[in-house]
UniProtKB/TrEMBL annotation:
Cofactor(s) annotated in UniProt: Mg(2+); Zn(2+)
Entry's family note: Belongs to the alkaline phosphatase family.
Residue ranges with Basic and acidic residues bias: 47-61
UniProt keywords, alphabetically: Hydrolase, Magnesium, Metal-binding, Phosphoprotein, Signal, Zinc
Protein's name in the database: Alkaline phosphatase
Cleaved signal peptide residues: 1-26
Source organism, top-level taxon: Bacteria
Keyword check for Hydrolase: yes
Start and end residues of each stretch annotated as Disordered: 28-61, 211-233, 401-426
Keyword Lipoprotein: no
Gene3D superfamilies with a match to the protein in the record: Alkaline Phosphatase, subunit A (3.40.720.10)
Amino acid sequence: MAARTTIRRAGAAAVTVLVAAGTAVGATAGHDAGRGGDQTASQQSGHRGDDRDRGRGGKDRARNVIMLQGDGMGLAARELIRLATEGKDGRLVMDSLDEAGWTATDSADPEDAVTDSAAGATAFSTGVRTFNGAVGVDADGNPVPTLLEDAKRAGKATGLVSTAQITDASPAAFGAHVTDRYDQSEIARQYLEESRPDVLLGGGEDFWLPAGEPGAWPDNPAEDPEEQSKGTEGNLVERAQELGYTYVSDAEGLADADGRRLLGLFANEEMFQQANEGEGDVYSPEVPLVDMAAKALDVVSRDRDGFFLFVEEEAIDEFAHRSNATRTIEAGQALDETVALALEFQEKHPDTLVLVVGDHATGGLAIENVDAEDESGEGATAEDGPFPVPGTDLEFSVDWTTGGHTGEATPITAQGPGAERLSGPQLNTDVHDAVQRAMLPRGHR
Ligand SMILES: [Zn+2]
């Protein structure tokens, strides 16, 4: 808990700085049909658009969108994080937003009933259900415009942040179009040459460099000897730098970076070590999620036209795959700290829509009384715990049903312009539609 409070304060300090900058550059929303290159021009043309919109719900317009995702964060996972962190009477920050609903998670896979993260994120990013493994394409494999691309077209800054490989399925669904989520070097290439997010922060350096070029993160490290550069599209770090990105690979570099376009790769693969309890499981990202998000906000909030920022905590899903409740809770706490940062930004910039989503649930976890007589499962799905309930003498166990995903709905909370459209039951594709309506003037949808 102590570490948690400290990180939260660090996040708050970062926000204070960028809030001052944001106020100086302009309190008026601007939307531009053209590209965001010339901020003054887009600001001027944006004024007319705003006046026209104001008569029919312009106050609903979200200049900025911060979309936060707990990968694999179903209701049971969210409650696990709450109970273990805040106790029975406490509340997570992510549960304090004004609006709440739930979203069905179905994909349009011809073989599997339950979605994967690629199809789940594609439903959120494009409003189209597709087959599992598909990234930013419809069920026929055709590219579909994403919320990030919509934002870019409206002149907004854009960013992707994840503790997974930044080319992993969820962020990829916002900035790339491929039929196979594992085509990660192609996803990276599309980021640089096509969708061009201003900020890319996460893991996955292995996909940006060809075999034999280890880069800043050495090949075959002791903690995971299989990790090594395996890019298929040449040296994409150099390509990024040619295209104007500042490249950083550690926390210090990120803190010092001051470019308007930023690429940070902070691990060979994920920014944590996915494993069962006591078998090399580590959640200790080179840069905490909240610090990546703070830096991303610092950069994208300089754009007068606003921004779209997607921030993901991947470790909730990946540790649930290993039925590792301890690390699932830790990752959930990291997400909650990041939601606090987003809400502090939103308080200073009320024209910001903040939403917290989960693409699917993972592990089929159940919070249970500690009971030696109760079946525990075996191997990967054995019970975890007991865990203390803060503020009580009580303990609970976590039982797991599967090492895979499960098909229930996931909670969604939201605050800011357009948030009310996200209350109540939603399809995953509705989430896209609500964000798009909030973010774009009528003529841009
Ligand atoms: Zn998963």
